[in-house]
């Protein structure tokens, strides 16, 4: 790799100058970046996005936004390959590692020292780069003056792809955790790295650990998860660490929707919240609409806080309040209306409390392992896993309570986190409680509004238990003993309308979203204990002048598979997913990728489950001599559970032009 701050030859694309650059990290690793600058000498305020997803090939399409930010917005933009990924040197031992944060401090310092820089920097990004934008804001890095985090979390343990309410997320295992094993083992781009790119490739394969193995080895909310969680950091600090203006963009069909109301309620800096109906995708094209031009909103926020421009919005929060809409896995448009508020809780907020009528009693449920399959993957929420289906079949395998909405009651908007109080017992030393809130239409269609999950062994342990203590310790249940628990449901919006019923569905599993417990059990719920608290708000109609986005593509489901099957004789339910394709990167690079996996669960023994997946990348990389190197990596996962343990096998193979050049294998047995 070239050892200079000017990493190569500048290019022009319209009114934007594009420069490859390298930046020296504190330990000598060379970090690869691309700098986009508007025409003219500047100086410019600079926006930074830092990702492990390879800027020259796998996420080269992100450059469309960078070009727009430079040409239309007048910002310089720096896109960085994180260390050990893409064309950057070094090794990244885990996501959001301390080394990553050290590098980002160095990068921001480098920017502020450049003659083309005003010394004012903003960080932004979706998902991973939204996370590290918040991390750097919490670190108070000099020169970082504003951040925008889209589809990001404030709590890595219970609101990410790892665990939910203390329960291992199952479906996520075959996606991001698995494909990062293969992606992190890909070579640097030869035209960027230069001589020695193959040696660097082999070093990566040898030195890069599978991140997911470490995640599986930490099933409790320990210090591993506090690193990178702004809700509660390693030393007990919280949101007060954030010292620069912060914008959050969230989607009600995305897994990171909890980083909304609770976050802005605690921020002590200027903030903005934009929360729409979207999945984990650009709000201009995400399902379901209505869609908005989010790049325009991001530019306005940075103009306000980096250059002293006009307010980006008359009110800091714009929130889409959903209305009942028939469920579809590829829903393109959700009914609802935009509203706005200035602070949270909003002065109109109140709590509606619902209880169960009738005589006291105990409702019991012989928990079935495949209950939950008609919802959706709570993290990503997009294709192939889709959006929630009609919940009636899952409701039939749950304890349910309905409350009709009387015409005299009119409409009411749920905005925030609902809370469910229960007295429960398990027939075993383990047990989970899954709670879903559904809207039941007059024709019986049951639409998922929001949900929550708690491993009863983690009761009293924050953040798995939202009402627990940070110093709480998990402990097994005493079979037959009653426990009082409170479960916080995920942040949401929904309009209750007359003629519909509100349904609370209580179950013991939420599969394949979460891995079922280690032993069959009967869940008991004291009927008189059921108490549902709904956050009701009368928010002002939205006056913000959104510009509409182009909307979802008709080809979003091309090549996508999401299939259920039930093996009657094996007494097993399975789900299968597959997606991928071919696309172009920069400078003649062609990428083929494939993501596929299956999960299974016994319907007679909760302890017996499995997850198998495969992720593959084939990079067609042009070389200086005019030839092309086809560099491939494939990661495979096999996780099986029984009553006592998770048995994990992770494999990685690498090929050059079809010839195997490396293979690795990791195994572990993790007690449940």
In brief, what are we looking at here?
The protein is mainly beta.
Folded structure, characterized:
The chain folds into three domains: 11-259 and 266-272, Rossmann fold (3-Layer(aba) Sandwich); 260-265 and 273-557, Galactose-binding domain-like (Jelly Rolls); 561-671. A twelve-stranded mixed sheet has the order 1-2-3-5-4-6-7-10-11-12-13-26, sandwiched between helices. A seven-stranded antiparallel sheet has the order 27-28-29-30-31-32-33, covered by helices on one side. It contains eleven helices and 33 strands. It is mostly beta strands. InterPro entries: AB_hydrolase_fold, CocE/Ser_esterase, Galactose-bd-like_sf, Xaa-Pro-like_dom, Xaa-Pro_dipept_C, Xaa-Pro_dipeptidyl-ppase/CocE. Keywords: Hydrolase.
Summarize the topology:
Layout: E1 11-13, E2 16-24, E3 30-38, E4 44-51, H1 63-71, E5 76-81, H2 98-112, E6 117-126, H3 128-139, E7 144-150, E8 163-164, E9 167-168, H4 176-183, H5 190-193, H6 197-207, H7 211-216, H8 223-226, E10 246-251, H9 261-264, E11 271-276, H10 294-307, E12 317-322, E13 336-341, E14 350-355, E15 362-366, H11 392-396, E16 399-404, E17 412-416, E18 419-426, E19 432-440, E20 446-455, E21 483-488, E22 492-496, E23 501-507, E24 522-526, E25 531-536, E26 540-541, E27 561-567, E28 572-584, E29 590-602, E30 609-622, E31 628-641, E32 645-656, E33 659-671
Parallel strand pairs: 4-5, 4-6, 6-7, 7-10, 10-11, 11-12
Antiparallel strand pairs: 1-2, 2-3, 3-5, 8-9, 12-13, 13-26, 14-25, 15-24, 16-23, 17-22, 18-21, 18-24, 18-25, 19-20, 19-23, 27-28, 28-29, 29-30, 30-31, 31-32, 32-33
């Amino acid at each position: 790799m070239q050892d200079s701050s000017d990493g190569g030859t500048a290019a022009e694309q319209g009114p934007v100058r594009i420069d490859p650059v390298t930046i020296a990290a504190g330990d000598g690793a060379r970090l690869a970046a691309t700098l986009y600058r508007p025409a003219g000498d500047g100086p410019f305020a600079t926006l930074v996005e830092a990702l492990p997803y390879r800027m020259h090939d796998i996420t080269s399409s992100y450059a469309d936004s960078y070009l727009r930010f430079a040409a239309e917005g007048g910002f310089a933009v720096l896109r960085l390959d994180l260390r050990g990924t893409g064309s950057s040197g070094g090794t990244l031992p885990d996501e959001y590692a301390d080394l990553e944060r050290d590098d980002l401090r160095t990068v921001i310092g480098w920017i502020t020292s450049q003659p083309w820089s005003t010394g004012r920097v903003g960080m932004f990004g979706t998902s991973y780069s939204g996370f590290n934008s918040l991390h750097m804001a919490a670190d108070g890095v000099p020169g970082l003056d504003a951040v925008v985090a889209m589809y990001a979390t404030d709590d890595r343990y219970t609101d990410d792809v790892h665990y939910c309410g203390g329960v291992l997320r199952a479906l996520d295992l075959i996606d991001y955790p698995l494909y990062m094993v293969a992606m992190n083992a890909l070579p640097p781009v030869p035209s960027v790295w230069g001589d020695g790119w193959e040696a660097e490739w082999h070093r990566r394969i040898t030195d890069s650990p599978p991140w997911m193995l470490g995640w599986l080895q930490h099933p409790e909310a320990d210090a591993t998860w506090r690193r990178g969680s702004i809700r509660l950091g390693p030393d007990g600090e919280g949101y007060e660490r954030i010292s620069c203006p912060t914008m959050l963009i969230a989607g009600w069909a995305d897994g990171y929707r909890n980083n909304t109301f609770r976050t802005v309620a605690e921020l002590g800096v200027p903030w903005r919240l934009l929360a729409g109906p979207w999945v984990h995708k650009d709000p201009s094209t995400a399902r379901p609409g209505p869609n908005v031009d989010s790049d325009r909103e991001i530019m306005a926020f940075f103009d306000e806080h980096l250059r002293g421009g006009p307010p980006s919005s008359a009110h800091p929060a714009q929130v889409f309040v959903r209305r009942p809409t028939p469920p579809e896995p590829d829903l393109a448009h959700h009914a609802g209306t935009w509203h706005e508020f200035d602070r949270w809780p909003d002065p109109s907020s109140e709590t509606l409390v619902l209880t169960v009528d009738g005589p006291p009693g105990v409702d019991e449920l012989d928990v079935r392992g495949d209950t939950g399959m008609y919802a959706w993957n709570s993290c990503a929420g997009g294709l192939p896993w889709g959006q929630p289906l009609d919940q009636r079949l899952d409701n039939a395998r749950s304890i349910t309570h309905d409350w009709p909405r009387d015409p005299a009651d009119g409409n009411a908007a749920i905005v925030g986190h609902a809370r469910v109080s229960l007295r429960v017992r398990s027939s075993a030393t383990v047990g989970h409680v899954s709670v879903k809130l559904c809207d039941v239409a007059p024709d019986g269609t049951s639409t998922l509004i929001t949900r929550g999950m708690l491993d009863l062994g983690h009761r009293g342990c924050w953040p798995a238990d939202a009402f627990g203590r940070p110093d709480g310790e998990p402990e097994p249940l005493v079979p037959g003993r009653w426990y009082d628990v409170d479960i916080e449901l995920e942040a949401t919006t929904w309009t209750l309308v007359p003629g519909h019923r509100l349904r609370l569905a209580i179950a013991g599993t939420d599969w394949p979203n979460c891995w079922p417990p280690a032993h069959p059990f009967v869940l008991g719920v004291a009927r008189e204990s059921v108490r549902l608290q709904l956050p009701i708000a009368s928010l002002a109609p939205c006056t913000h002048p959104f510009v509409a986005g182009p909307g979802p593509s008709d080809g979003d489901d091309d090549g996508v598979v999401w299939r259920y099957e039930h093996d009657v004789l094996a007494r097993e339910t399975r789900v299968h997913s597959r997606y991928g394709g071919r696309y172009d990167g920069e400078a003649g690079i062609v990428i083929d990728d494939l993501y596929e996996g299956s999960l299974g669960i016994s319907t007679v023994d909760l302890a017996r489950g499995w997850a198998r997946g495969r992720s593959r990348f084939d990079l067609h990389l042009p070389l200086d001599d005019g030839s092309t190197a086809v560099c491939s990596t494939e990661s495979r996962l096999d996780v099986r559970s029984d009553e006592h343990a998770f048995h994990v096998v992770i494999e990685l193979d690498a090929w050059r032009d079809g010839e195997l050049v490396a293979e690795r294998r990791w195994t572990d047995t993790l007690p449940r």
